[in-house]
From TrEMBL:
Domain ABC transporter span(s) in chain numbering: 2-237
SMART domains, A to Z: AAA (SM00382)
PROSITE patterns per UniProt: ABC_TRANSPORTER_1, ABC_TRANSPORTER_2
Family listed: Belongs to the ABC transporter superfamily.
InterPro entries: AAA+_ATPase, ABC_transporter-like_ATP-bd, ABC_transporter-like_CS, Metal_Ion_Import_ABC, P-loop_NTPase
Protein name: ABC transporter ATP-binding protein
Keywords of the record: ATP-binding, Nucleotide-binding, Transport
The keyword Nuclease is assigned to this record: no
GO molecular function: ATP binding
């Protein structure tokens, strides 16, 4: 289990807190969607959790260990992070994925390391790319390689920052389906920054809405309501169901009920 406790972060005093006392927990095998408008601190939150950015306050616990006190190799064995924009590496796909085993390699690559790499490459359908140079791949293909490298770390917590941004619709669903299945099979906690609400409700178990540097709402599918979406995104939506799957349909031309939005926002803040 992962617990994020009271994360507070600011870039500078002029801007103020980008994140303020943000906290939530994730159970083993769960995928959570980190949601909110552009600039609300979603990517910053992942970077704080992975110690890329130094927090002003707070802690992150993975199975009772505070990751802010772990060594670099121990941190990499517990948390894997895939950024929004992955840099192209001048190496083969196989070698790029194998780098994810670095925290575990003592003297040389073991047969277990190679087995794990082959298994993840196969699950992500990258078998035909293993000898291709990563720098020659498309943005979507490179994104899948970055995910594969993170998965071979065998982390307890996987952080994904907009993993579907460079993918076509088929590959968006395929990638998130693979992530969800691996999370359940390996009991990995996953936090995904994502803008597509319909992908979020299709593949995630819980939903963390950020607004004004704080947690606005956190819960299961029952927490994804037109009222919450309207309050956070300032856009009117309807939620319908098709073949048992909820679908969020935006109606941007319908006027947002400002008075209701503010009342709902005040109520949510008191609950949080």
């Amino acid at each position: 289990m992962v617990k994020v406790d009271g994360i507070t972060y600011m870039y500078n005093r002029a801007v103020g807190n980008v994140l303020e006392e943000v906290g939530f927990d994730v159970d083993e095998g769960q995928c959570i969607a980190v949601l909110g408008n552009n600039g609300c601190g979603k990517s910053t939150l992942l970077k704080c959790i992975d110690r890329i950015l130094p927090v002003q306050n707070g802690a992150v616990f993975v199975e009772d260990s505070n990751v802010f006190t772990l060594s670099g190799s121990s941190l990499a064995q517990n948390i894997a992070y895939v950024p929004q924009n992955t840099r192209s590496a001048n190496m083969t796909v196989y070698d790029a994925v194998l780098l994810g085993r670095k925290p575990y390699i003592k003297w040389d690559v073991s047969s277990k390391d190679m087995e794990i790499v082959r298994d993840i490459i196969h699950q992500l359908h990258l078998d035909n790319y293993i000898l291709r140079n990563v720098s020659e791949l498309s943005g979507g293909e490179a994104q899948k390689v970055a995910l594969a490298r993170a998965l071979v770390q065998e982390p307890r917590l996987l952080l994904l920052d907009e993993p579907t941004s460079n993918l076509d619709p088929y590959n968006q669903h395929e990638m998130l389906r693979i992530v969800r299945n691996i999370a359940r099979e390996k009991n990995i906690c996953v936090a995904i920054v994502i803008h597509d609400l319909n992908l979020a409700i299709r593949f995630c178990d819980r939903f963390l809405f950020l607004k004004d540097a704080q947690v606005f709402s956190y819960g299961g599918l029952e927490s994804v309501t037109p009222e919450i979406i309207e309050a956070v995104y300032r856009i009117h939506v309807h939620i319908i169901e098709h073949k048992g799957i909820p679908v969020i349909v935006p109606f941007p031309d319908e006027k947002v009920k400002e008075e209701h939005r503010e009342q709902f926002f005040d109520k949510q803040r008191k609950v949080i």
